[in-house]
Amino acid sequence: MSIQHFNRKGQTFYLHQGLTKTGKPKYFFSQKENGTLVDGMPEGYEVYENPNAQVFLRKIPPKIITDQELSIVEKGMKKFSSLKYYKIDVKKNTIVIYGADQDPAGLMDGLPIALSARETKLKYLERHLSYSPLMQFVLLDEEKRNFTTMRYCFLGSVDDWIHIGKTDQLQNLVREYVKHLGQESYYSLHGW
User: Are 98 and 73 in contact (CB under 8 A)?
Assistant: First the structure.
C-alpha cells in the first residue's frame, strides 16, 4: 500500500517518487493518486506537516531541542498565554510559536447555524485557520541550555525576527514573554 498522510485539514497526500536530472530518486507529496507512488518510507526520512498543513518528506533532522524543552513551551502557553489557537514547531535549534491569522470568534459567528453532523465548529476552525510565526526561542548554548527570545516584527520595512530579551533558561523566558502573545504589549517588545 502506498504511503499516505492525512493532514489537519482532512486532505490526503500521497508520497510520489520521481527522478532528478542526474537520475537519482527524489520524493514529494501530492494530492494526486496518479504517478509513481511509494510503498515504503525511504530510510532516513520522515513525514513533516508544517503549521499551515503543508506536507513534506524531509530527512530526519538531528534532535537539538529536547522533549522536556518543548513541553516547557507547551505548558507555558496553556498557563501564561491568552491565545487559544496556536501551533508550536521545532526547526533545528529553535522553538517557534505560531498564532492564528484569522479571528476565531469572527469565524465562529459567521458559520451556518447547523453544520453537518460530521463536522463540529471546532473541527471547522482547525481545518480553516492559517498560522503565522509570532515568537521563537533560540537555543544559544547547548551545554548550559540557554535560549534567547525573538518576536516577529510586522512592520513593512522590517518583516523579520527581532531580539526582545536576554539570554536565560527557557522556563524563565517562557514565563516572561508568552503572556504578551495576543496582547497589545507584544508590539512593544524589543531589545533596543
Answer: no
Cα–Cα distances in angstroms (integers) from residue 154 to residues 67, 77, 85, 134, in the given order:
30, 21, 19, 9
Please count the other Cβ atoms lying within 10 Å of the Cβ belonging to residue 8: 14
pLDDT, residue 159, reads 81
Gyration radius (Cα) of the chain, Å: 20
Evaluated on CA atoms 46, 49, 54, 59, the torsion sign reads negative
Q: What is the DSSP letter of 37?
A: B
Q: Are 17 and 39 in contact (CB under 8 A)?
A: no
Q: How far apart are CA 98 and CA 131, in angstroms?
A: 6
Q: pTM score > 0.85 for this model?
A: yes
3-class SS of residue 13: strand
DSSP state of 30: E
Residue holding cell 542526474? Answer: 22
Place of cell 531589545: 191
